Amino acid sequence: MIEFKNVEIRYGDFVAIECLNLNIEDGEFFTFLGPSGCGKTTSLRALVGFLTPTKGEIMVDGKNVVPMAVVRRVFGMVFQSYALFPTMTVYENIAFGLKVKKTPKDQIEKNVLSESLLHLLLWLIFRQMRINLINVRSTYAS
Q1: What was the pLDDT predicted at 84?
Q2: DSSP class of 51
């Protein structure tokens, strides 16, 4: 389980996240959704260890990961630009973090294929939702 407990993140005087309390259960598929500047990326950056909260705790399976080094955490982050490693294939980009952690090759293949299939499925679902939305707009526009 992942828990954000009273997490506050400041950049100088600017309060990016005032008081985040959130529980994400094991096996739960969770998505941060919101407008620009609402704290989605800031929350993820704190979870993976790219920044340290001003206050509060981030618990993973009951252990506070805030003081833990980035390399000791079991999280990764893919940015919206999709251009982290433009010279690598999709497979190689997904597998990169696992290779750095020296994960066995058979486990890398299993994880990468399941992640790739999940992302493909999500892409197809959102693509279909967009097509349906366009069709609805076209119907009501005429």
Answers
A1: 64
A2: S
> Strand, helix or coil at 137?
helix
Longest CA–CA separation in the chain, Å: 58
Neighbours of 14 (CB within 10 A): 7
How many residues in total does the chain contain? Answer: 142
Nearest by Cα to 4 from 129, 18, 69, 13: 18
Q: Looking at residue 95, what DSSP letter applies?
A: H
CATH (domain of 69):
3.40.50.300
Domain termination site, one of 77, 99, 117: 77
Q: Which amino acid is at 6?
A: N
What does pLDDT average to in each consecutive run of 10 residues of the chain (142 residues)?
96 93 86 83 91 96 93 73 69 81 88 72 64 48 49
Q: HSE on the CB side for 68, CA within 13 Å?
A: 18
Q: How many domains does the structure of the chain reveal?
A: 2
User: End of a domain among 77, 112, 131?
Assistant: 77
pLDDT (0 to 100) of residue 90? 73
Indicate whether this model's pTM tops 0.85. Answer: no
Which residues form the domain of 54? 1-77
